[in-house]
Amino acid sequence: MKIPQLLTKVLTDIGEPGPYRFVMGRGGDTAVSVKVVAKRRDLFAKIHENASLLMCEQAALTALSSFVKTPRVVSCSEIDGCGVLIMEYLQIHPPLTDPDWHALGRALAGLHGQSECEGPFGFDMDNYIGGSLQRNEHLSSWRDFFVQRRLGPQLELAWGLPESARRHVERVIARINVWLPADPPAALLHGDLWSGNLGLQGGEPVFYDPACYYGDPQADLAMMSLFGSVPDSFYLAYQGHLPDAEQQNTWRVYHLYHLLNHFNLFGSAYASSVERVARQLLLL
Asked: Which of 61, 162, 245, 280 is most buried by its number of CB atoms within 10 A?
C-alpha cells in the first residue's frame, strides 16, 4: 500500500476527517516522515516497516512528556506490516540565539532534576537508537549497565571494525571505572539528544525523537557535544558553569557508544572516529 493510501486508512480509522494533503518530510535516517494537512488540523506522521520501533518512540514520548514539552501522540498502530505514528504537528524552529539555547539548557536541567531517582538504570522496555536495538534491562550498577547494555552490544555488532580500533575499545571497557562514576543518580534521559532532536515552538523548548532510559545525565550532555558545537549559554543555563576537563573525559566514553552505533548503521566512515576517541581516553 502506498503512503497516501496507508495514511488515509489510518486517519479514517481514528476518526480524523478529510480531505487530506500529504507533504513528504525532509531528513530522517530511520522513518519516513509526512506532514498531514487535514480538515481540522495539521498532523505529523512517521512510518516505518518495524512497528515496534515507533511503539517504543510513543512510550518514550509519553515518559518525557511528564517533564518537558513533546509532540502529543494521537495514535500509533500497525497496518499492512508497517508502523504508523501520528502526532500533533508543531511548528518547531532550531535554536538560533543565546536565549534559545538558555531556554533549552534550563529545560534539560528540569527534565534531569525532576526525574532524578535512586535507580536502577535502564527502562521498562528495550527501544531503539536510530535503527539499532537499544537494550534497557535494569541494572543497579551504572558501570555494568553501560558496558553490558551499551558498549558491549554495539561492539559485538561491529563486524568490519578495524582490529586496532576494536582492541582500543576493549581496553576502554576493561578500564571503565577510570572514567565513569560508580553510581550517579539516575535520571530520565532523552537518549538521542543531538541538535536535530530538539527545538522551540514560540520560545518553548520541545524535545522529540527520543530513545529514553534512566541513566547518568551526563550521557545527554555528551551527545549534545558530539555532533556540532553547543554555545556557552546552554551549559551555563544547565549547570551554572562551563564543562571542565573531567566532565569532558567522561563524555568521551558516552561518545564511543554513539560512534559505534553510527559505524553499525552507516558504515566504515565512522571507524576512525571510534579509534580516535578510544585512543584519547587511553592516553589520559
From this structure: 61
Out of 29, 80, 192, 244, pick the active-site residue: 192
Write out the H or E segment, with its range, that includes residue 219.
helix 218-226
pLDDT in tens, 95-109: 999 999 999 999 999
pTM exceeds 0.85, yes or no: yes
What domain count does the chain have? Answer: 2
Rounded distance, CA 264 to CA 273, Å?
Answer: 13
In a domain, 148, yes or no: yes
Catalytic annotation on 209?
no
Helix (H) or strand (E) holding 8: helix 3-13
Contact 167/203 with Cβ under 8 angstroms?
no
| CB within 8 Å of 124: residues ≥ 6 apart | 59, 136
Which pLDDT does position 1 carry in this prediction? 66
